[in-house]
Amino acid sequence: MSRSSLVHPFPQPPEPATVLEVAPGIRWIRMPLPFALDHINLWALEDGEAWTLVDSGVGNDETKALWLRLFEGALAGRPVAKLIATHFHPDHMGLAGWLTERLGLTLTASQGEWSFGRMLCLDTGDDYAANQLDYYRRAGYGPDLLAGIAERRNTYRPRIVPIPVRFRRIRNGDTLRIGGRSWRMIEGGGHSPEHACLYCAEDRVLISGDQVLPRISPIVGVWPQEPEGEPLSLFLAALERLKALPEDTLVLPSHGLPFHGLHARIAQLQHHHRERLDQTAAACAEPTTALTALRVLFRRELDPYQTGFATGETLAHLHHLMADGRVVREAGPEGVWLYRVM
What is the pTM of this model? Predict the structure, then answer.
């Protein structure tokens, strides 16, 4: 199924520190990221005589400087009334603390996203590193890879300013009134604990965050903090919730270009994960570790950080196969997990 079925009404993103109107009262902001995925889309919504901002960008000086230029330029003349974070990842919530303090706001977010981000912000003890080592050892990492894990500390904390100590909670089905419009929170899942997508039925606009992206599948992974998690079911269930929206919805994603073709993109993502599940099951014809299955799914060379993300994704597919009864897990030597087809 080709991505060509998607229609991109705005083929060029806005330049740094500028905005682009993508629907009445909705401005597109793009910020750089210091990762392989080199940008994030943020959104400014007209809210009466003020702005409501959606997501913050990563917590670094470059992003702070771009926000200051926006407040003096394209966003000047209106105060900011609200800051909404779709989820806790550093490119989305990394500057939430700085923005809320500077602008005198209370962050709006789901409880799962605020609490997980706040927890990771503060989690710097030795038990953090010990849990990481245990998780990756059970996934099949050998001494060389484990040595790199032992040297690596909390990678979340350096990419954020401290997550705000308080927040205003939104839940699935809640409605926010912004600029005379109603925006309904639709809970995502799988990519993060309680991802907030925002849908305006009046204008048929969906701020999808990372839940639905036009070119890549968001990371759906099992992580050391919840090693028995089964996030792929949560992700697929969230896609079904979003599939109930009209096909002509304008989707505003956090990465890539805005697009029409929501149902087609959801079908592509569902197909992608069905293929990955079949590939993962085939990798378990004989008892195998998560690391060995990873090398079947990810054939390109991966750096240590990419290997960590790929481990989480591989485990997500293994755990989904376990939940479906297609694969069983057994304890191998030294407690390493081994997976095999039924």
Answer: 0.96
Q: Which H helix or E strand runs over 281?
A: helix 262-283
Distance CA 319, CA 316 (A): 5
pLDDT of the chain, 342 residues: tens digit per residue: 455 689 999 999 999 999 999 999 999 999 999 998 999 999 999 999 999 999 999 999 999 999 999 999 999 999 999 999 999 999 999 999 999 999 999 999 999 999 999 999 999 888 999 999 999 999 999 999 999 998 888 889 999 999 999 999 999 999 999 999 999 999 999 999 999 999 999 999 999 999 999 999 999 999 999 999 999 999 999 999 999 999 999 999 999 999 999 999 999 999 999 999 999 999 999 999 999 999 999 988 898 889 999 999 999 999 999 999 999 999 999 999 999 998
Q: What is the CA radius of gyration of the chain?
A: 20
Residue 30, token pair as written in the block = 């793009």
- 307 vs 38, 44, 76, 210, 219, CA distance in Å? 19, 35, 43, 20, 12
User: Is 331 within a domain?
Assistant: no
Expressed as residue numbers, the domain containing 180 is 3-123+155-278
The closest of 337, 327, 321, 280 to 135, measured between CA atoms, is 337
Domain assignment of residue 98, yes or no: yes
Write the CATH number for 239: 3.60.15.10
Any domain includes 219: yes
The conformational region for residue 47 under phi > 0 = left, psi -120 to 50 = alpha, else beta, is: beta
Closest listed residue to residue 61, CA positions, set 15, 9, 16, 98: 98
How many domains does the structure of the chain reveal?
A: 1
Cα 134–Cα 138–Cα 140 angle in degrees, nearest 5: 125
- Of the candidates 154, 222, 160, 155, the one whose C-alpha atom is nearest the C-alpha of residue 191 is 222
Is there a domain that residue 133 lies in?
Answer: no
Which string of DSSP letters, residue by residue, matches 151-178? H---SSGGGSSPPPS-EEE--TT-EEEE
Distances from the Cα of 84 to the Cα of 14, 118, 199, 261, angstroms = 21, 15, 13, 25
